[in-house]
Specification:
This protein is α/β, with parallel strands linked by helices. The chain has two domains: 339 residues, 3-Layer(aba) Sandwich (Aminopeptidase); 181 residues, Glucose Oxidase, domain 1, CATH 3.50.30.30. 31% of the residues lie in helices and 21% in strands. The chain is built from 15 helices and 20 strands. The strands form three sheets. Strands 1, 2, 11, 14, 15, 16, 17, 18, 19 and 20 form a ten-stranded mixed β-sheet that branches. The chain has an eight-stranded mixed β-sheet with strand order 4-3-13-6-9-10-12-5. Strands 7-8 form a two-stranded antiparallel sheet. Helix 1 packs antiparallel against helix 14 and helix 3 packs across helix 10. The N and C termini lie close together (12 Å). 50% of the residues are buried.
C-alpha cells in the first residue's frame, strides 16, 4: 500500500477484488494446512482458553462504532476528527491501565504533516470551452508550490513517444515548447509490448514533455473498467497528506491534468477531428499528432497546510525480568479519509475502525489476565496509513521502544470480511518469511479454523499495510485477515458489491447485519499468537531464505520484483 501517487489509492482495491475472488470462491486453491512445521502446542492450554474468554465482542463493537461515528468526522490525518479519535483511544488505553509509550509520558507520539488539496478555483479552458473540475478533468500531483497559471497553443501529440528503436516520433513537425500538450495513455496495436513499455511509461512520457519545454500537460484515455476515470477523479480531488519532511520535486513541474473521455471530446470540438477518430488513428499505429489550432489555459489552485497528528501507543510491561525489555507490537491504523470538501464523512468502519476494535479487545484481554506475558506488549494505533503507511513509517524510524528489541508485529487491517459470518479461514500475510508462520498455523489449528495461504502472492499484498514498515526495519511481522466458511456465493457477492460501493467511500459504515463473533475470532487468534510469541525464549527469526532476512533496526532495500 505504500505508494506515492494515485495508484496507492487504486491498486489496493483492484488487488482486494482479485484476492476475494480466490479466497471466497475458489476451493481449488485448497484451504488446508500449508504443511509448514508446527509451532508451539496445537491445542489451547487452560490458561489460553481463559484468556480467549476475556476477548469481548462488546468491546470490538463499541470501539468500531464510536470510531466510525459522525462525531469522529472520518478520522482524517492531522484533522480535528483525527485528534478526537486519538484522544478517545488514549482514554481507553488509560482506563485499561496500559503505560503511556508516547511523548513526554503521554500516549501520543506527535507527527508533523503537510497536506494539499486541489481547490475548486482550478480550471481548464480549451478555446472557448470551459471544462468542469471533477467530471471533465482533475489536477494530478505533484502540485506546483505556489499554484500555476499557464496558457499556450494546444497540441495533440499522440502517445507522446519519440524512439529511434521504435522508429517513431509523435512530435514530428510539431514545436511543443511553451505549448499545452495533450497525450493519450495506451499502446498502438502494432507495437511490441515489451519494447513499448521501456519508452512509454507514464513517467517517461511526462519527463520527455518537460524536457521539450511543454508549459502544461493533459493526459487522456485515463481509466479502465476496474479503475474508471470517475474513481480516479474522486481520489484526486480529496485532501492528501505527507510527512513534513517528505521531499518536494527537485525542479519546477508544469501542471499535469487528467481528463475524462467526455472532457477530451470537448477539447477536440471544432478541430476537424473528433477525439474518437484521433484515438482510433493512434491505436492503429498511424501518425495522429496535430496542432488543434486553439489556445488552452490551465489554472492550478491548491490549498497547502501544515499540521500535526498522533500515533497512539500504550504498553503492558512483561513479567520476565530478562525478557520484559523486548516487546510484541500490535498495530492497526485508526485513520480514514476525513471529510470531503462538500461535507461528506468517510467513516472508515471496515477499513479500519474494525481493526482498531480488535486491537483494543486484545489489549483489554491482556490487562485483565492475572498472569502477564513474559515479554512486554505494545499496542500501537497509527495514523496516516491511507496516505502511504506514514504513521507506521514514522514510528519505526522514531520508535518509542528500541526497534531492535521488538520481537514481532501483528497487524490488523482489512475490508471487514471477518464480520460477514463466523470466521473459519485465516490468512497470515507473510507466513512464508519467518517462523511466525508455523506459530500462526499452530494457533489456528488450536482454535478450530483453517489456514488459507495467500492465493495471489504476485499481487504483493504483504507490502500494503503497516506491518511492512516493521518488515523493512528487520522485524518479523504478519497481517491477519479472516473470512467465513460455508456457502461461498453470498459472501463473494457481498464483497464485490462492497468494493464497488463502499471501499474508501462515505458508505463504509457499521451495518446492522455484521457478525461481531467473526471479528472476535480473529482477535482471539491474534491474542493467542502474540502471547505465544511473548512467552517463547527466543524472538521470532526470519527464515534464511527470506528476502527480508536482515537484523532488526537496520534498513534493507526492497526485494527485486516489487
Amino acid at each position: 500500500m505504500k505508494l506515492g501517487s494515485q495508484s496507492h489509492f487504486l491498486q489496493r482495491g483492484l488487488w482486494i477484488a482479485l484476492f476475494l475472488t480466490c479466497l471466497i470462491a475458489s476451493p481449488s486453491l485448497g484451504w488446508q494446512s500449508t504443511g509448514t512445521a508446527m509451532g508451539p502446542a496445537a491445542t489451547l492450554s487452560a490458561t489460553e482458553r481463559e484468556e480467549a474468554a476475556r476477548v469481548k465482542t462488546e468491546t470490538i463493537r463499541e470501539v468500531t462504532t464510536t470510531l466510525a461515528s459522525d462525531e469522529m468526522q472520518g478520522r482524517g490525518t492531522a484533522t480535528p476528527g483525527g485528534d478526537r479519535a486519538a484522544k478517545y483511544l488514549a482514554d481507553r488505553f488509560a482506563k485499561l491501565g496500559l503505560k503511556p509509550l508516547g511523548d513526554a509520558g503521554t500516549y501520543f507520539q506527535a507527527i508533523k504533516f503537510k497536506s494539499t488539496q486541489v481547490l475548486p478555483e482550478s480550471s481548464l479552458k480549451a478555446g472557448d470551452t470551459t471544462l468542469k473540475l471533477g467530471s471533465d478533468f482533475v489536477v494530478a500531483p505533484p502540485y506546483a508550490a505556489e499554484g500555476a497559471d499557464v496558457s499556450g497553443g494546444l497540441i495533440f501529440a499522440g502517445y507522446g513517444v519519440a524512439s529511434d528503436d521504435l522508429k517513431r516520433d509523435d512530435f514530428a513537425g510539431l514545436d511543443v515548447k511553451d505549448k499545452i500538450v495533450m497525450v493519450i495513455v495506451g499502446r498502438p496495436k502494432n507495437a511490441d509490448e515489451a519494447a513499448w513499455s521501456k519508452v512509454a511509461s507514464r513517467q517517461a512520457v511526462i519527463f520527455g514533455l518537460i524536457k521539450r519545454g511543454a508549459a502544461g500537460i493533459i493526459i487522456a484515455n485515463i481509466g479502465s473498467k476496474e479503475q474508471p476515470y470517475s474513481l480516479i477523479a474522486d481520489y484526486l480531488t480529496r485532501r492528501r497528506a505527507a510527512l513534513e519532511d517528505a521531499p518536494e520535486p527537485p525542479f519546477k513541474l508544469p501542471p499535469i491534468i487528467l481528463v475524462s473521455d467526455e472532457g477530451v471530446e470537448k477539447i477536440f470540438a471544432g478541430s476537424n477531428m473528433t477525439y474518437a477518430q484521433a484515438k482510433a488513428k493512434a491505436e492503429s499505429g498511424e501518425f495522429a499528432s496535430r496542432d488543434l489550432n486553439k489556445t488552452a489555459a490551465i489554472a492550478e489552485r491548491v490549498k497547502r497546510e501544515e499540521g500535526s497528528g498522533s500515533n497512539v501507543v500504550g504498553m503492558l510491561e512483561g513479567s520476565d525480568a530478562k525478557l520484559k525489555d523486548q516487546a510484541v507490537v500490535y498495530t492497526a491504523h485508526y485513520d480514514a479519509y476525513g471529510m470531503s470538501s462538500d461535507g461528506r464523512i468517510y467513516h472508515g468502519a471496515a477499513d479500519n475502525a474494525l481493526g482498531v476494535g480488535e486491537l483494543m479487545a486484545i489489549a483489554e484481554a491482556f490487562t485483565g489476565t492475572p498472569t502477564r506475558p513474559r515479554r512486554s506488549m505494545i499496542f500501537l494505533a497509527v495514523t496516516g496509513e491511507e496516505y502511504g503507511l506514514l504513521g507506521a513509517e514514522y514510528w519505526v524510524h522514531h520508535p518509542t521502544w528500541p526497534i531492535e528489541k521488538v520481537a514481532a508485529d501483528l497487524n490488523f487491517d482489512g475490508i471487514g470480511t471477518e464480520v460477514y459470518a463466523p470466521v473459519k479461514r485465516i490468512v497470515g500475510f507473510g507466513m512464508e518469511y519467518s517462523d511466525l508462520g508455523p506459530a500462526l498455523e499452530s494457533v489456528v489449528t488450536a482454535t478450530g479454523e483453517s489456514i488459507a495461504p495467500d492465493p495471489l502472492p504476485e499481487e504483493k499484498a504483504f507490502y500494503r499495510s503497516d506491518h511492512y514498515a516493521f518488515v523493512k526495519r528487520g522485524v518479523p511481522a504478519l497481517m491477519l485477515l479472516g473470512a467465513p466458511g460455508g456457502d461461498t456465493a453470498p459472501w463473494l457477492a457481498r464483497a464485490k458489491r462492497w468494493l464497488v460501493t463502499d471501499y474508501h467511500q462515505p458508505t463504509d459504515t457499521v451495518r446492522p447485519d455484521w457478525n461481531w463473533d467473526g471479528a472476535r475470532t480473529l482477535a482471539v487468534v491474534g491474542l493467542i499468537l502474540g502471547e505465544r510469541v511473548a512467552n517463547t525464549n527466543a524472538m521470532p527469526a526470519w527464515l534464511t531464505s527470506s528476502p527480508f532476512n536482515h537484523p532488526r533496526g537496520t534498513d534493507a532495500p526492497s526485494p527485486s520484483g516489487r
